């Protein structure tokens, strides 16, 4: 189903969160002809699930109110920004199911205008060139309890400021020699208003403007004006920018901007067992602690895509957690719940043996092959069925056999009968071991009268095992993933890296897969019966498929919710 076909969840008449309530009220009051929002990433890393919350909110509001949402790169810092990140961000937003149409913008598109507006502030005596070093500026800034001190350069004349700023732009001074600051109030209780830096000298090439500039606007100076230029009606951002709002408003009030955006803040997404910070994720990539930005353990959108999370699940998750101003930490299991919900409906079922143990059916004729019909998806009859080959030598899961089973173990054991899914009841008669005592083969009898899995006399074993015919199986690699961190609150003791889970990835190289899996391509998602949901990794080759475990079958989150409700 496309997004268009779905009823808009937060339609104006039934606003589902405080942002939509504000927008609905503005629409009702006739404040705006068109609602315009934007998603404004800085291209200094890959997007993570926190960004997905912001994307779903901004694009979702635009969709619900029939407005539009811009994608704008806040590319004001060329030393940290790269084309690779720009491309990845565009790909991720599209993958999530959103479309900015022709409305792709860059803060760098506005560099000329921002520069001219800086001249306006200088001429009005509201900005000045400061020669203090970064450290000195910091020392002058004061603290939350103490006011700041004026820079000795604060009282420069307009002419001197225009001259110096022009020469900064011409490249006469080295990096860090001077900055342009807004002249607001060094004693303001809001530190953001203590003469914030507007421009710094950076002799750095920019991915879009090349070497045209050697002075670059700060994020704080560029951000609000970019919104104003684009006619953004509702500038939605996370709470850490609340204290910056008076500064953004100051620029807007003091500049001849074409529109006056209003900023609204919401609480950022925090998730247990992970860290949502581009800066920290970049460190993991740089230090080689993961396979890259798209490592399936990473909370990046490219990582969870590779892991197999469907985009619908992220949209479902965003709708489920909602939008509020209260800070909270969401249980990672809630996200996994949404993933299972979608995959349960959509993923075809297959049989795969991850840690194979050989079973020989001693009374099954050599060379005989039977085909059994297997349901592709019990949740979706239209998915049909497939046939699965059965023969004398099979693979079963090593953990489905115990030589000396404890009381509650109902799977295969010496002398015990179990059902093979879709096929027969079999009984284990002999255990074959190698010299080291390791079980290498089970010799079993099958009961020909139980074809399809039911016995004429009604006996019914407690366990049903998945299996793969050895002669028909295709080999594969399966990568099992656990949380990236060992604890729900990584870094709580002050050291994030120390909390990394050393067992977050386990690679199983010798898996045996049902032949219907041949030909699957990267990104395909399946359920391996009894094991979980898996996704084909781009490392796959035609002769060696690689699967990532997306999520196991057990939904702990749903259980906790059910318990809470009862
Ligand atoms: P990070 O801290 O990971 O570097 P950021 O806030 O610096 O993230 P930006 O590129 O500036 O990243 O973010 C783009 C938008 O995404 C901003 O509007 C920001 O508020 C929003 N955003 C970032 N992280 C989250 C989060 N965890 N939850 C919700 N929104 C977020
Ligand atoms: Mg940021």
Give a quick summary of the entry.
The protein has 566 residues and is of the alpha/beta class. The chain has 13 helices and 25 strands.
Which structural class best describes the helix and strand composition?
alpha/beta
Taken from the alpha-carbon principal axes, the silhouette is elongated
Determine the strand fraction and express it as a percent band: 15-25%
Average pLDDT? 95
Computed Rg:
30 Å
Q: What small molecules accompany the polymer chains?
A: adenosine-5'-triphosphate, magnesium ion
For the report, how would you describe the main beta sheet? 7 strands, mixed
Percent of residues in helices comes to: 25-40%
Task: Calculate the terminal CA-CA distance, rounded to whole Å.
Answer: 33 Å
The count of DSSP E runs of length 2 or more, i.e. the number of strands, is 25
Quaternary structure annotation: single chain
Low confidence ranges:
1-11
Strand order of the largest sheet: 10-23-24-25-21-22-11
Count of alpha/pi helices = 13
How would you sum up this structure, described in words?
With 566 residues, this protein is α/β, with parallel strands linked by helices. The chain has 13 helices and 25 strands. The strands form 6 sheets. A 7-stranded mixed β-sheet has the order 10-23-24-25-21-22-11, covered by helices on one side.
Write the layout of secondary structure elements.
Layout: H1 18-28, E1 36-39, H2 49-64, E2 68-73, H3 83-95, E3 104-106, H4 111-123, E4 127-130, H5 134-140, H6 158-170, E5 179-182, E6 197-201, E7 215-217, H7 219-230, E8 234-238, H8 245-254, E9 262-266, H9 278-286, H10 301-307, H11 311-321, H12 332-346, E10 349-350, E11 352-353, E12 356-361, E13 370-375, E14 385-390, E15 393-397, E16 417-420, E17 425-433, E18 439-446, E19 464-465, E20 467-469, E21 474-481, E22 505-513, E23 525-528, E24 532-536, E25 545-551, H13 556-565
The structure holds adenosine-5'-triphosphate (ATP) and magnesium ion.
């Amino acid at each position: 189903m496309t997004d268009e076909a779905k009823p808009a969840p937060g339609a104006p008449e039934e606003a589902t969160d405080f942002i939509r309530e504000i927008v609905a009220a503005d629409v009702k009051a006739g404040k705006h002809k068109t609602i315009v929002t934007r998603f404004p990433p800085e291209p200094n890393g890959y997007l993570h699930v926190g960004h997905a919350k912001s994307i779903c909110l901004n694009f979702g509001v635009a969709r619900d109110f029939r407005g539009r949402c811009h994608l704008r790169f806040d590319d004001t810092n060329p030393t940290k920004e790269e084309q690779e990140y720009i491309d990845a961000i565009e790909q991720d937003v599209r993958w999530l199911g959103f479309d900015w149409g022709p409305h792709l913008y860059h803060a760098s598109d506005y560099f000329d205008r921002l520069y001219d507006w800086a001249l306006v502030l200088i001429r009005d005596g509201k900005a000045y060139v400061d020669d203090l070093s970064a450290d000195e500026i910091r020392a002058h800034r004061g603290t939350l309890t103490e006011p700041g001190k004026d820079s000795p350069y604060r009282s420069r004349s307009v002419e001197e400021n225009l001259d110096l700023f022009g020469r900064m732009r011409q490249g006469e001074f080295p990096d860090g020699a001077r900055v342009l600051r807004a002249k607001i109030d060094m004693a303001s209780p809001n530190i953001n208003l203590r003469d914030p830096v507007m421009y710094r000298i950076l002799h750095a090439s920019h991915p879009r403007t090349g070497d045209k500039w050697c002075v670059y606007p700060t994020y704080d100076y560029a951000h609000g004006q970019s919104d104003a230029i684009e006619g953004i009606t509702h500038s939605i951002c996370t709470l850490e920018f609340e204290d910056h709002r008076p500064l953004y408003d100051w620029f807007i009030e003091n500049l001849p901007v074409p529109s006056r955006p209003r900023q609204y803040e919401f609480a950022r997404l925090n998730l247990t067992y992970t860290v949502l910070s581009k800066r920290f994720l970049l460190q993991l990539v740089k230090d080689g602690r993961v396979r890259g930005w798209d490592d399936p353990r990473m909370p990046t959108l490219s990582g969870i895509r590779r892991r197999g999370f469907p985009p619908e699940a992220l949209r479902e998750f965003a709708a489920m957690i909602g939008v509020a101003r209260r800070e909270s930490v969401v249980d990672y299991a809630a996200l996994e719940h949404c993933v299972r919900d979608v995959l349960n409906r959509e993923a075809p079922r297959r049989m795969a043996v991850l840690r194979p143990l050989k079973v020989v059916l001693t009374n099954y004729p050599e060379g005989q092959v039977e085909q059994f019909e297997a349901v592709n998806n019990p949740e979706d009859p239209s998915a049909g069925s497939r046939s699965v080959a059965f023969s004398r030598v099979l693979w079963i899961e090593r953990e489905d056999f115990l030589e000396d089973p404890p009381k509650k173990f109902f799977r295969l054991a010496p002398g015990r009968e179990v059902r093979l899914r879709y096929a027969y009841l079999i009984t284990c008669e002999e255990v074959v071991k190698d010299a080291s005592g390791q079980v290498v083969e089970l010799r079993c009898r099958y009961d020909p009268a139980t074809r399809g899995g039911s016995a004429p006399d009604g006996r019914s074993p407690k366990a049903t095992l998945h299996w793969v015919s050895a002669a028909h199986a295709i080999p594969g690699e399966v990568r099992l993933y656990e949380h990236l961190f060992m604890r729900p609150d990584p870094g709580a003791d002050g050291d994030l890296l120390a909390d990394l889970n050393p067992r977050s990835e386990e690679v199983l190289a010798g898996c045996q897969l049902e032949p219907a899996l041949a030909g699957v391509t990267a990104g395909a998602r399946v359920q391996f019966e009894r094991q979980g949901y898996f996704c084909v990794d781009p490392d796959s080759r035609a002769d060696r498929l690689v699967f990532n475990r997306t999520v196991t079958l057990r939904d702990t989150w749903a259980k906790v919710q059910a318990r809470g409700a009862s």
